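wait is this the right file?? whatever heres the structure
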């Protein structure tokens, strides 16, 4: 019984370590944590940031804005406007699960049969959120924005980037 308890504890610990932390950097795979972007045309990009399991939406959104600011400055622009924004959620299943198993075996002069019932729960820390924004870049005077969707790239870089 002690050996079984040790195995269960070790499996739970490994499962908890399987979630990727949310860090600002490029995604190394299509479903990996980090940013990616696609240039649609000069001065227009679609920027995506995928957070690790359980990352708050504010962090994921800030990192998408930070990547947009970095791209804007790298392309020689001063500001960007978010023209489209959406959030997707993946990797979280909170439904209860129950399993039943049976087994048997024999060895030498003895044999045994066992039946077990088990439940499982999610150790992942929550859903993985992905923020995707489409931006248009510009120079000079920022256009007026009633929705607050126009950002000064240098200010975003220093404000959000300063918290990293």
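ok assuming it is, sequence goes like this
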């Amino acid at each position: 019984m002690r050996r079984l308890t040790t195995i269960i504890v070790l499996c739970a610990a490994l499962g908890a370590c399987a979630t990727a932390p949310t860090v600002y950097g490029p995604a190394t795979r299509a479903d990996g944590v980090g940013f990616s972007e696609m240039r649609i045309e000069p001065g227009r990009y679609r920027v995506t940031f995928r957070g690790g399991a359980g990352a708050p939406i504010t962090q994921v959104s800030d990192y998408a804005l930070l990547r947009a600011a970095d791209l804007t400055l790298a392309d020689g622009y001063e500001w960007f406007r978010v023209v489209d924004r959406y959030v997707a959620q993946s990797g979280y299943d909170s439904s209860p699960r129950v399993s039943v198993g049976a087994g048997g075996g024999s060895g030498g002069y003895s044999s045994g049969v066992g039946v077990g019932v088990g439940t499982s729960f999610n150790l992942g820390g929550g859903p993985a959120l992905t923020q995707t924004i489409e931006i248009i870049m510009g120079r000079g005077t920022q256009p007026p924005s009633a929705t607050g969707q126009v950002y000064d790239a240098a200010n975003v870089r220093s404000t959000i980037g300063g918290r990293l």
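The chain has three helices and seven strands. so i think its the right one actually
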